């Protein structure tokens, strides 16, 4: 249903000759999702826990703008996701969702948050203990695609060596790393309050 709503909005935008800026002409880059997924499946339980958003590309579906903290609980088949942070109005906010295998068997996870559409969740690189590089790309009719990318860390700060690993993973599939914007994290963030949301 959410995908259908997004598609109708996309068609309406094309008809009005106003294509959203996150849609670009072309196709999603080739990613060896099968090899990545086969490597990651046995380690899904190690992916659970807290991940801080360090950087992301333009994403109109990300309602949290600062101090973004993601908490993933793994139940053996999927992750229950609780994301907290500060929204564009400066208010604390909680966003609930799940990260789970694609229902039609595609070799990657999918992310499904309330108020958004289900999208691919491809972990390009992670060591499970320090960093994670996540990529999501969806192709649409009329030769357009939308892609979103995230860099996560187990702590509010990510060391340069892990940041460079994510940059290398994104560059390898042709993502321009200058598209990333840093997410505000640090001592001014109300992490203790966020835990209780």
TrEMBL record:
The keyword S-adenosyl-L-methionine does not apply. Residues 48-185 form the Lipocalin/cytosolic fatty-acid binding domain. It comes from the Eukaryota. SUPFAM superfamilies: Lipocalins. One of its GO terms (cellular component) is cytoplasm. Belongs to the calycin superfamily. Lipocalin family. Keywords: Disulfide bond, Signal. GO terms for molecular function: pigment binding. This is Crustacyanin subunit C. One of its GO terms (biological process) is response to reactive oxygen species. Residues 1-16 form the signal peptide.
């Amino acid at each position: 249903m959410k995908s259908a709503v997004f598609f109708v909005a996309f068609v309406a935008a094309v008809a009005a000759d106003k294509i959203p800026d996150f849609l670009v002409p072309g196709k999603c880059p080739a990613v060896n999702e099968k090899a990545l997924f086969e490597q990651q499946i046995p380690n899904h339980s190690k992916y659970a826990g807290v991940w801080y958003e360090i950087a992301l590309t333009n994403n109109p579906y990300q309602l949290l703008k600062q101090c973004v903290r993601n908490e993933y609980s793994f139940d053996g088949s999927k992750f229950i996701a609780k994301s907290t942070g500060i929204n564009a109005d400066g208010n604390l906010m909680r966003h609930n969702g799940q990260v789970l295998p694609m229902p039609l068997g595609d070799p990657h996870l999918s992310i499904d948050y309330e108020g958004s559409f289900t999208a691919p969740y491809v972990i390009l690189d992670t060591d499970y203990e320090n960093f994670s590089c996540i990529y999501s790309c969806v192709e649409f009719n009329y030769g357009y695609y939308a892609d979103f990318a995230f860099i996560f860390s187990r702590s509010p700060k990510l060391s340069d060596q892990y940041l460079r690993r994510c940059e290398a993973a994104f560059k390898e599939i042709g993502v321009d790393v200058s598209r990333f914007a840093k997410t505000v994290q640090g001592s001014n963030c109300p992490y203790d309050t966020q835990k209780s949301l």
